[in-house]
Amino acid sequence: MSQLSERPEKPVVGVAMPHESAVQHVTGTALYTDDLVQRTKDVLHAHPVQVMKARGRVTAVRTGAALAVPGVVRVLTGADVPGVNDAGMKHDEPLFPDEVMFHGHAVAWVLGETLEAARIGAAAVEVDLEELPSVITLQDAIAADSYHGARPVMTHGDVDAGFADSAHVFTGEFQFSGQEHFYLETHAALAQVDENGQVFIQSSTQHPSETQEIVAHVLGVPAHEVTVQCLRMGGGFGGKEMQPHGFAAVAALGAKLTGRPVRFRLNRTQDLTMSGKRHGFHATWRIGFDAEGRIQALDATLVADGGWSLDLSEPVLARALCHIDNTYWIPSARVAGRIAKTNTVSNTAFRGFGGPQGMLVIEDILGRCAPRLGLDPRELRERNFYRPGQGQTTPYGQPVTQPERITAAWQQVLDRAGFADREREIAAFNAAHPHTKRALAITGVKFGISFNLTAFNQGGALVLIYKDGSVLINHGGTEMGQGLHTKMLQVAATTLGIPLHKVRLAPTRTDKVPNTSATAASSGADLNGGAVKNACEQLRERLLRVAASQLGANASDVRIVEGVARTLGSDRELAWDDLVHTAYFQRVQLSAAGYYRTEGLHWDAKTFQGSPFKYFAIGAAATEVEVDGFTGAYRIRRVDIVHDVGDSLSPLIDIGQIEGGFVQGAGWLTLEDLRWDTGDGPNRGRLLTQAASTYKLPSFSEMPEEFNVTLLENATEEGAVFGSKAVGEPPLMLAFSVREALRQAAAAFGPKGTGVELASPATPEAVYWAIESARRAGSAGNGGARDAAASDGGRVGAGAKALSGA
């Protein structure tokens, strides 16, 4: 076992424990960025001047009326920027734009003594606009050839030969929606300037180092004059990886110009209408199978809706292409990607970061093709799994390690769920209930862990031991409720060999650990855990030498367990506090900077080949649903999940992440339906679903009536911190089983062998139209001879178009 993955005697990792801030969360004492305003004197409040047009050229901004509003202190415009007027890493996101690019785009910011004064002042700013043509929908962008960014193509094998050798070839088209992050805490920042003109920003950000970088270049100062701290976030899900930077820069600019603290916080409507979402996608595809239903070739084009600027659309698209295989061996593949440019908010990272979109395409293909091939969907999926000992690689050339875990997790779900018996029960129920149908579906997950950009796969930490034996750890990861800080406390205590209560964690800030990567890509525990472990190992080695001198032994024979240093084969011991005290008086350094870089990664973005991932996270889920034939309404009766987290660092945290990820994925696939005004009227481009009243989120009523989550056993991951695996993003894709169960339930309203297409999100309306198509297949008497085309009552581009077969 590698040193990184090896666990010592009586480790604190692996212990099921609650979130380190759980008590503060439930008692309301946990502080978030905007709570700090009440503890800060003379704060100014920022409010955006939004232009409610989809696109237009700004010809004038008149601020006089706003400055006359009582309580308004200043109006920030592009003329006030001393550095670079841009808030993006691609230099395509002007902080103060001279061209409005989406409905609600902010062109200026008003600072007021109160938020109400700032709001009234913002309403008084006059903006002259020359309206320009706009592109709102993904379909319109494709038709208008409106694209930006990279155009990757991933190729593997001989695609033409693969199709020539195929017994069955199908083609199809599929469009599916994005998703709103809807974190509980909206975007927020609080900026202050000290007596030396240095800027300190409290920000709700997943990427403090990049927030620091953007703020520095907007202000025209070096990075060491800007410090960013993230206390904690009330949710992030990727929405706070890139998008907080410009908001923090507005607060910092205001603080610099006024000399007073500036508070920035979006209300819910502003957050929904100004911040990016998960990318919606459009896919066209052609797939070939042999006579046994094994995939021979895939040719597909994926188009992501990037919105008005690039943001993270290029790496999101890259990850979508890299995950189109999911758990399936595709001998020959050609997959192209494009990014559509539309006049909507700039879409950004969201849990899974393009992986769910790519995987949804292949799962939809198999769900649609199974009836055409005369196969049960479960059987079709099983026949195409990656297999051990075959030397199989992904379409981008990375060997698939641990393919046996795909089958192991799958089989455990089948067994634990009593799959075969329940299928028989469901068949009997459906036969007896003409207007209500049930279905049971199983899908798997194979998700690559690491940033696609190799340089981001590094982490840092700073660990301090004080003379009394207490320990303070700093690391570069941010806490958004996912339990990263809890795991880091456990990693530090385990590595040092001390009880957990001896260790405290400090808020994440850029003047403690510099140049950190975003807490994203499910790599927070891997990168920061490796760095914390490295720092603690340095300290432990120093302390072992001190203990050895006190115990009269060799350092290699000393162990520190549960806060006591002991020599092998002896009853002599030295308490941790005494050991630290002795080390101080021997002038032994009691602080250490830790560092970790993920080894074994390489990626060529031009050829789209390499091994960008350290390992793959594996899982499987079986979902049973019941659907009402009159309304399309449904309920999730039971979910069974087996998921691979390696040797869990914190099992309670991991199970919570699996449950939460699954429910969020089910929300994306079944409920959350983003709609924009696509008409030519004055509100063209306006987000219509801009509140919880119109944008439906999963809640208790959508939770499975029975929810069983099991961690895959005997699953140590060599080369990862204490043998663990990432857990943040992979469980979201387990929710594919919900959508596939709904497809099968809708098809059950038609003759045996009927296949249906299902829009995404599969709202009750969409399910109803799928049911109607199945019924039409029955009334036409054609059974499963061809797919029943799904409709949604006239909504353009709601879902998939009909298959054609050869």
Automatic annotation (TrEMBL):
Cofactor(s), names only, from the UniProt record: FAD; [2Fe-2S] cluster; Mo-molybdopterin cytosine dinucleotide; Mo-molybdopterin
Organism: Streptomyces coelicoflavus
Entry's Gene Ontology molecular function annotations: 2 iron, 2 sulfur cluster binding; iron ion binding; molybdenum ion binding; xanthine dehydrogenase activity
Domain Aldehyde oxidase/xanthine dehydrogenase a/b hammerhead, chain residue ranges per copy: 27-133
KW Oxidoreductase (keyword) present: yes
Name used for this protein in its record: Xanthine dehydrogenase molybdopterin binding subunit
Pfam families in UniProt: Ald_Xan_dh_C, MoCoBD_1, MoCoBD_2
Recorded family membership: Belongs to the xanthine dehydrogenase family.
This protein's UniProt keywords: 2Fe-2S, Iron, Iron-sulfur, Metal-binding, Oxidoreductase
EC number: 1.17.1.4
Chain positions covered by the region annotation Disordered: 778-806
Coiled-coil regions listed: none
Top EC group: oxidoreductase
